[in-house]
Amino acid sequence: NNLMAAQMTNAHRRFLQVLMSNGITEGSEARKLHQHCCETDKVYYAHDKMDDFISTINSHLQPLFMQIRKGISEDDGRAHYAVVNLAETEVTKMASDYTEIELELFRKTMDLIILSENGFASSTDILNLADQLKKKKMKKKEAEQVLKVFVEDKWLSEKNGQYTLHTRCIIEMEQYILSNYQDVARKCNICHSLAIQSQVCESCGIGMHLPCVRKYFRGQTEPRCPKCNEFWSCDTP
């Protein structure tokens, strides 16, 4: 209730504006922005109060069905923040930026990534989908260009010809992915965020992000599953 009553200051508005224009903001950048906005607007600043600062913004965004959400990079475990539109489900939030054919390629790419063993899809496999699109076939050159745009717009990440979902995509589409891929989508047993790139316990099937695996098993001589206590058979990073 106190949070609902907390006033949105210019500092809050400026913070929200920058977050929205960035699409996604890395944790340390968000902390710098928090300090800068508070100091510029001459409002109370404390480095450990960013969560409260964001909660105040979120209480005012609630009637607009929007929210600032925190997620972690599956690559290095670093926190990131993005503004999510809760009213838009599915890939509709992308519909204003891309054509129907481009969205179909994105959905098919998402299928490949989420249904894969390791959370990646090769460019070869994705480009092979280009001539199987329902609306109309896409030339491989054209598909390469579209993939490049998805990477630039932070929906996909690419490393050595392997594509995965960008942290922004995971934060914004977590609910969509969990409800549309119920059989395969899982949350990390440690941080409880959606895990696309993960290691899975062979005994009980729980999954963990690689950075979470690294942290959890640090210093343990014999890694055991946090849920069933069986030996963790994957190579710990």
Description:
Its EC number is 2.3.2.27. One of its GO terms (molecular function) is ubiquitin protein ligase activity. Component of the Smc5-Smc6 complex. It is found in: Chromosome, Telomere; Nucleus. Keywords: Chromosome, DNA damage, DNA recombination, DNA repair, Metal-binding, Nucleus, Telomere, Transferase, Ubl conjugation pathway, Zinc, Zinc-finger. A hairpin with a 6-residue loop joins strand 7 and strand 8 (194-195). The chain has nine helices and ten strands. It has a three-stranded antiparallel sheet. The chain has a three-stranded antiparallel sheet with strand order 4-6-5. A two-stranded antiparallel sheet has the order 7-8. The protein has 237 residues and is of the alpha+beta class. The longest helix has 16 residues, at 100-115. It has three domains: 10-64, no CATH class; 91-174, Arc Repressor Mutant, subunit A; 185-236, Zinc/RING finger domain, C3HC4 (zinc finger) (Herpes Virus-1, 2-Layer Sandwich), CATH 3.30.40.
Percent of residues in helices: 40-55%
Q: From N to C, what is the helix and strand string?
A: HHEHHEEHEHHEEHEEEEH
What is the CATH domain class of the largest domain?
Mainly Alpha
Structural class: alpha+beta
Number of strands: 10
Number of separate helices: 9
CATH topology of the largest domain: Arc Repressor Mutant, subunit A
Strand content: 15-25%
Mean pLDDT: 89
How many domain modules? 3
Domain RING-type: 188-229
Family: Belongs to the NSE1 family.
Protein name: Non-structural maintenance of chromosomes element 1 homolog
Main location: nucleus
